[in-house]
Amino acid sequence: MTEVRTRIAPSPTGDPHVGTAYIALFNLCFARQHQGKFILRIEDTDQTRSNRESEQAIFDSLRWLGLEWDEGPDVGGDFGPYRQSERGDVYTEHCNELIEKGYAFRCYRTPEELNVLRESRREQGLHAALKPSDLKLPDDEVARRAAEGAPYVIRMVVPEDDGECIVKDMLRGEIALDWSMVDAQILLKSDGMPTYHLANVVDDHLMNITHVLRGEEWINSAPKHKLLYQYFGWDMPELCHLPLLRNPDKSKLSKRKNPTSILYYQRMGFMPEAVLNYLGRMGWSMPDESEKFSLEEMHTHFDIQRVSLGGPIFDVTKLKWLNGRWLREDLTLEQLADRLQEWAFNKERLMPALAQFQPRLEVMSDLAPSAAFLFGGMLDLEEGDFTSNSKLPVEQQVDLLQFALWRLEALRHWEKDAIFAEMKTLSTQMEIKLKDFLAPIFVSIAGTTSSISVMDSMTMLGPDMSRARLRHAIGVLGGVSKKKMKKLEKAYQVLEINS
Questions:
Q1: Do 44 and 101 belong together in one domain?
Q2: Residue 224 bears catalytic tag
């Protein structure tokens, strides 16, 4: 009997997402149900955004939840390397095989040419998906561009007709998808790095993955993956597309409307058992419909067919209620004390704070009110906190906070000097004095401008909580509408271009 092998392949490009934990949980439970193996693979082919700090955050957050993998970059295994950036030769070799078989081609089209092609298709009322016949240049033009050393990508050949591709799904049965919507997907980028589509198909085969449980956003990519399996002559793993997590308003779960970083929930003081329990309830239920259950109980009773296809709602209020049950029902007072000490009142967390506040202390009881913001969650802010601490109009403060948030979301290394450099640069670009620029950020992070250095505060709070507080502050000041967001995005791009 073939060993069941499942995997997740997260990208180390930011805070570890609860959606990653949700997919990991279901893959782990499915593997354990069949006495199989669960593999963690790192998809770090985006070299401009991927970094080892984010990779370590993935390891730490999944382990904090209690999700352990059998093979991966940090634990090894028989099918490594488990980082896609270390498997470049494998992808090049398989791309060359596809070219030799006539299933892929080198595409020298420039970005400008691609835009013209897509616009032409739109004007004709056609789907924007570009086919090989649209993209292929005459042989002499290909030879000319190749001789000039022009950059190229490798694209896969896809059907030109309007037929259907039938994809089998463990939950949905047969799914019919139109070939007309499938473009000649890039397999290898101009920098030699593979796209998700090539890397995951090749890796899943070479790592003997038998079942691919992933989010339903990948359904439309399934025809490309099925085609690649056919081109290579490989058996395709069984597919299972899990429903996406949703905000309470039914929109796709996003950090603008809900905290999505796993580390945020750790920093807020949630119990990992409760967070995992809540994720287990996202579209799945125990046979007895019990709301509270452990990971071991989920392993014992797991059945993929009990997954509901309705979009599960990730509601922080309900998560808090469930976490309260875990705190009250599963911890003795002594255990609760140990958890509190482990969560916030440990030397690693206290020492940086004490170093900042010791010069301000007259009696030890001064510490609690002064440093409370470093150990709490979301601050109880009002618009008046901003207007009384900043000279800037509220609307300008919102713009400033949104720009700062975007800049900090792109920050690769969360260090005091790096944070300061980004904020100073942004204040210069926005032509706002640094002191005035930092005032709304001070209030967002500490609740007041009368506190320790906001750079030190953000360093101690960490990226997940700092960014969450900035988002919270934007909401307190009225938030940003979709229309306003588009204007801000354009203004921010102008700043970036002129920087």
A1: no
A2: no
Judge contact between 455 and 408, C-beta under 8 A.
Answer: no
* Domain assignment present for 353: no
What's 261's DSSP letter?
A: B
| Tokens 């005032």, located at residue | 439
Identify whether residues 382 and 480 lie together within a single domain.
yes
Mean pLDDT, rounded, for 432-457: 94
> Could you tell me if residue 355 is inside a domain?
no
Q: Are residues 182 and 253 in the same domain?
A: no
**pLDDT digit string, tens, across residues 160-172:** 987 999 999 999 9
In whole angstroms, give the CA distance from residue 25 to residue 18: 10
Is the separation of the CB atoms in 228 and 198 below 8 Å?
yes
Q: Are strands 238-242 and 211-215 parallel, antiparallel or unpaired?
A: parallel
> Does residue 395 lie within any of the structural domains?
yes
CB 401 within 8 A of CB 470: yes
Is the CB of residue 178 less than 8 Å from the CB of residue 172? no
The number of folded domains in the chain is: 3
Q: Does 52 score more than 90 pLDDT?
A: no
- Give the whole-angstrom CA distance, residue 10 versus residue 43: 6
pLDDT score for 32: 96
User: What is the chain's length?
Assistant: 499
From 255, 257, 320, 490, the catalytic residue: 255
- Spatial neighbors of 197 by CB under 8 A, at least 6 apart, are 156, 185, 187, 221, 224, 225, 228
In a domain, 237, yes or no: no
Distance CA 52, CA 13 (A): 9
Q: Any known ligand binding at 292? A: no
Residues 119, 157: one domain? yes
CATH number at residue 142: 3.90.800.10
Instruction: Please list the residues that pair with 17 across neighbouring strands.
Output: 261
pLDDT tens per residue, range 301-332 = 999 999 999 889 999 999 999 999 999 999 99
**43 shares its domain with 100:** no
Quote the domain boundaries for residue 190.
Answer: 90-196
Q: Which residue has the tokens 């705190």?
A: 327
Torsion of CA 313, 318, 323, 329, to 10 degrees: -120
User: Mean pLDDT, to the nearest integer, of 432-441?
Assistant: 96
Could you tell me if 91 and 205 are in contact, meaning their C-beta atoms sit under 8 angstroms apart?
A: no
* Res 499: pLDDT: 64
Does residue 376 sit in the same domain as residue 494? Answer: yes
